[in-house]
Amino acid sequence: MLSILTKWYPIVLVTSVLAFGCCLAGRASARTFGGYDCTDDCVSHAAGYLWAEKREIDSIDDCRKNRSEAFYEGCLTYFDDPERGADFDDDGKTIVVPKPTSY
């Protein structure tokens, strides 16, 4: 019985560590803003939201599709929820957006 445990223990240990590590890496990078996946710490989403907020858009057609997808999604988030704000992602983590001179 001991020889079976000795034989399989390293394989089980390595497999467990790799599986756990993969789960943590995926969880750490899975930030969302308004339900949309972020790829850049949600900065572009927040910028799109702030752009829409500044202009008080009242139609999805006002969101600029010629910007990045994340910027566009941020604008859509403002349209869906103008009281949400752009300071935090969906999990409540702070988003640091540099103050632009213009969008």
Verbal overview:
- The radius of gyration is 21 Å and the shape is globular.
- A two-stranded antiparallel sheet has the order 1-2.
- Helix 2 (about 45-55) crosses helix 3.
- A hairpin with a 2-residue loop joins strand 1 (about 30-35) and strand 2.
- The model is unreliable at about 20-25 (pLDDT under 50).
- About 50% of the residues lie in helices and about 5% in strands.
- The chain has about 100 residues and is mainly α.
- It is built from 3 helices and 2 strands.
- About 25% of the residues are buried.
What letter string, H or E per element, gives the SSE order?
HEEHH
**Helix-residue proportion:** 40-55%
Supply the helix-strand structural class. Answer: mainly alpha
The total count of helices amounts to: 3
Mind telling me the C-alpha Rg? Answer: 21 Å
What sort of overall outline do the alpha carbons produce when their principal axes are compared?
A: globular
Regarding quaternary structure, how should these chains be classified?
single chain
Largest sheet, if any? Answer: 2 strands, antiparallel
Taken as a percent bin, the fraction of beta residues is: under 5%
Which regions are unreliable across 5 or more consecutive residues at pLDDT < 50? 22-27
Strand order of the largest sheet: 1-2
Distance between the termini: 68 Å
Secondary structure: number of strands: 2
Mean of all residue-level pLDDT scores: 80
* Structural domain count: 2
